[in-house]
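Protein modeling request. Please complete all fields; requests missing the sequence field cannot be processed.
Requester role: graduate student
Desired output: 3D structure, token encoding
Chains: 1
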Amino acid sequence: MAWSWTFVCACVGMFWIGQANGEEQRVVEQRILEQREVDMDEFMRAVQQEIRVAVEVELNGPPVFRPRSFGMVPPSLNYPVQFPPGRPMPNNLQAICFHGDQRPRYPDTYFPAYGFGQLKRRALAVNLAESLFSECCAANQTRGHDLTLCCVRQAWKQMVATFCEMDTSVKDRVYSCCKERGAAQLKCFEDDAPNASYLPTEELPVSPIPVESSFFFNPNTCLRSPLTPHSLRGTIQQRTSSHNVSISFPPARPMADDIESVCIHRKLRPFYDLQCLPRKGYGWLVRQTKAVNRVERGFKQCCKSKQEVLECADGKWREEMDRFCREDKERNMKYHCCEMEEGQERYECFHSNAPGAGYNVELSTYTPTLQNVSLGQICETHKLIKKKLLAGLPIQNFVKQCCHLSSNQRTTCIQQKIMNKGICSTRRAPFITKCCTTSVDSSQCISKILTNAISKQIRIHLRMKKCPLS
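Delivered output (470 residues):
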């Protein structure tokens, strides 16, 4: 039976070989069925694409992954903004005023509704600067060249401060100049200006765009006439011969009989501005100014604490007088009170030489003379007075409808709004109710109260910073 097993194995082998050949045959038949006619156009396009990719890799190297916006036109090219405005100088003041309506403005419709936050903030800053410049230039005939230049410089600094405040308050890339501080920040904005000469760039006059701002020009911070190098030579008396020093130095020593006035009239006493002083020749005045300002800051701390105010204020005053003398001796200036030893004799010297009679003075002493206060000045002061004195009066409507007009037209516009009988129908503020119920001419009554409120805020603003040299 041995042969039978050999026969069985051979049969099994032949069976499996047949199975393998059958499977291969089925694969070949399947491939034949899947074949179709070749589209030569499609084939050539695929070949050309492969050639282009190969050439690009050969020339430019392998592909690099980039953001989705790569290759798109930058937004600043689609919506250009001439930012920042140049720093006002004597050589460009005439162009600032004369070509004001031939430089671009940027209305809200200039940009799409969404996005472009950086460009929108820059455009708003440009609109603000041009709006404030127009106010300064409108009063050029009455103020003269020097005060107009001082006004536009204050307006430009206000623009810088406002823009940087906006730019740093959002989670976005901060403009490089806003990372600087003080003079370095202003110099950075000056260097970045694309049109520092303020030359006209628009063929046709553009319409003004009203911008809400709390800017108010303070002429007390302006140095009326610039000093020449010759005027910086010589003694202190020679230096001040053409300029009046208007600073209350030394400050009086606080006493028990006037400590209440020290606190009550604190906001009415001047806080002196150092930026208006020349850089050279007036170091003695800078030290006196700093001493007075530090004394007032010390008084503020004592008055707010409301505990042992006299002892606290007297300590602050003595501390600053001693500090002044240390600085005086370091520079060998020899202020006569500083020649005395530290103690009561020196303090008596400072107190006896203080101008005025201490802090118990009439309120009118601190009140500057105001002329030609008009309702139109609500545009500069409305942010300061609307919450305290004029709650209920539609101040925002006045600002939106009247403040984009010229200075002369603002007052007339606001007077017309006040004469509207709808104001009396609201009666949201006590003074409106009083004027509408007890006065024969309610509009005149409201105008008087509004003018008084404006005057009060202007007085406070003018007293906030004062130039010690005029």
